[in-house]
Amino acid sequence: PERAAALLEWVWREAVRPYWGRQRRVLEADVVARTARAGRGGWVSVLDSLRPGRTRWLGRNRLQVNLHAYPPREISGAEMLFVPVTPQRHGWVSWDDGERYALVYPCAGVLTDAGARAVPAALGALLGPARAGVLVLLDSPMTTSQLTAVTGQGLGSVGRHLKVLREAGLVVGRRTGRSVLYGRTAAGDAVVAAAGPPEPR
């Protein structure tokens, strides 16, 4: 047990902890992306997008998890876990037969693709890179805390950016329960579109 504990501690110290801040932000961004997709297309849309071309909701309590012609499994009463991972692979399934099943899928969201969150140079020059980055991200609605997690900026900084963008008519906030979701207005969309594509890296 002592050697196993020492090994796990070493793995954490050398292979996980140095990268955990970034990995955690990627995972949080995945939650944001899946939540936004559920709001637009429902839970079925989320299931269909976990592993595109492989997972698919078939209706009548049936979920396709891969393209193999295996016999279907009846898993009523078992736990079904959905496990996001940061490496961009196709994902896989695993199980403890009859007790627990897991669908492992690659993260989505703005932090998995640097191009998806890149800021056009002209927009960065106009608004400042940090504020422009917030505006670019708001093509899908997000809360202040979600923006903080995704951008790595402080809560106060994100709040100030949102205040300026709202006053300029580029962003609007809508209350949903105890949270406020911020999204771009038509004017905000037009400003981002007019700035052109991001600079190539």
Give the N-terminus to C-terminus distance in angstroms.
48 Å
Main β-sheet description: 3 strands, mixed
| Overall radius of gyration | 20 Å
Beta-strand percentage range: 15-25%
Strand order, biggest sheet?
Answer: 3-5-4
Describe it.
The protein is an alpha+beta fold and 201 residues long. The chain folds into 2 domains: 22-106, no CATH class; 114-194, Orthogonal Bundle (Arc Repressor Mutant, subunit A). Helix content is 48%, strand content 19%. The chain contains 8 helices and 7 strands, in the order H-H-E-E-E-E-E-H-H-H-H-H-E-E-H. The chain has helices at 2-16, 20-50, 114-117, 121-127, 129-137, 144-151, 155-167, 186-194, and strands at 56-59, 62-64, 79-85, 92-96, 100-106, 171-176, 179-184. It has a 3-stranded mixed β-sheet with strand order 3-5-4. Strand 1 and strand 2 form a beta hairpin. The relative contact order is 0.11. The mean pLDDT is 87.
Salient structural properties:
3-stranded mixed sheet, alpha+beta, 201 residues, two-stranded antiparallel sheet, Arc Repressor Mutant, subunit A, 2 domains, globular
Strand and helix map with partners:
Layout: H1 2-16, H2 20-50, E1 56-59, E2 62-64, E3 79-85, E4 92-96, E5 100-106, H3 114-117, H4 121-127, H5 129-137, H6 144-151, H7 155-167, E6 171-176, E7 179-184, H8 186-194
Parallel strand pairs: 3-5
Antiparallel strand pairs: 1-2, 4-5, 6-7
Short structural summary:
With 201 residues, the protein is an alpha+beta fold.
